[in-house]
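re: ur question from yesterday

yeah so i grabbed the chain u mentioned. its 262 aa long if i counted rite. heres the sequnce exactly as i have it in my notes:
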Amino acid sequence: MGLIDSHAHLTFPELRDQVEDVLDRASEAGVERVITIGIDLNDTRDAVALAREHPDRVHAAGAIHPHEASKVTDAGMEALTQLWDDPAVVGLGEMGLDYHYDFSDRQSQRSVFARQLEAAVARKKPLIIHCRKAFDDLVPMLVDHGFAGRDVVFHCFSGTADEAARVARHGWRISFTGIVTFPKSTELHEIAKAYSADELMIETDSPYLSPVPVRGKRPNEPAYLAHTAKFLADLRGIDYDELAGQIGQNTQAFFRLSEPEL
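ran it thru and got these structure tokens back, copy pasting raw so excuse formatting
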């Protein structure tokens, strides 16, 4: 099994107009499938449409990103949660809290996150969490809404070893981006080196966060996931194909992805 990019934004302008080429380059690099993430209602609709256009290579997820929280209407929230039941949607997110940029006020962020958690709890699809400088507020909200021990992934994890351990204690997991390849990410290197092999997942978060050796190149794209996988294989001292296959199996199982039709 090849790699699966567990978090990309194929609907963003940098990639949307060249999706066919992006997916072909991904396949050539050994990245067989991509989960494209919607950040609001319209973007989630676009993600679902893209997954329907490429059912063997693209899956969709979507939610209200914390940056968009202050723009949410009741009608929009209702439409989004109805869209979650679409078979093309394999994950609910990215949702959460972002206290780094505060593009939406924190009260709106917490309110919208809570509303999404309330709607998600009865659904059996994994949560994709965005958390930036908000760990101590976000984790209790997940627990209070009944998500301890449920399928939850903290995407683009760049936190501390203590935070990674707290995530693990609740039965959740983390996902690594190209940030793990950066030379100064020394604490993240140690986290990734010791991370459980049967839970390891990686992502591009494209069009952002291009990994070494293409760091700084925009847009990032799913094909570059292979660079992150190569870095992790070297870091962990294992064969690249073995690691790639394990990551693919982990991601397929976590998101309950069906086997692609040949």
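noticed a couple things. The chain has a mean pLDDT of 97. also The domain at 3-255 is CATH 3.20.20.140 (TIM Barrel).
anyway ttyl
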